[in-house]
Amino acid sequence: MMFPSKITTCLLVLAVYMASPSESTITCGTVTSTLARCIGYLTNSGSLPSDCCVGVKSLNQMAQTTPDRRQVCECLKSAAKDITGLNTDLVATLPTTCGVSVPYPIRFSTNCDTISTAV
């Protein structure tokens, strides 16, 4: 009788291991605090601080799953509504300016549900 319980245990472990995460582990608070140093630059009121690019690179490293990338997208779109004077051209080119390759456009019109980790 021990044999069936071991099979069941193995199947459960395999199912948990193979399941892809369906929820993001990144909060909007993390997104906004990580990129807070970029606001002056993105509103044409300052030069690009190195801390901004550190934040961009850090956020890119954190967002390695499809749910995380979608969450970051939604958080950025939500936060952008509260920031007066954002320069959309600077926003769109910020990842490239900081040396980060993002496989989707950075625009306020981006449909976050279409973002995935697949290239």
Automatic annotation (TrEMBL):
The task this protein performs is described as: Plant non-specific lipid-transfer proteins transfer phospholipids as well as galactolipids across membranes. May play a role in wax or cutin deposition in the cell walls of expanding epidermal cells and certain secretory tissues.
Q: Tell me which residues make up the Bifunctional inhibitor/plant lipid transfer protein/seed storage helical domain.
A: 28-112
Superkingdom, natural source:
Eukaryota
According to UniProt, the name of this protein is Non-specific lipid-transfer protein
Recall the GO molecular function terms of this protein's record: lipid binding
Q: Does the keyword DNA damage apply?
A: no
Q: Where is the signal peptide?
A: 1-24
Give the family from UniProt. Belongs to the plant LTP family.
One GO biological process term is: lipid transport
Query: Which keywords describe this protein according to UniProt?
Result: Disulfide bond, Lipid-binding, Signal, Transport
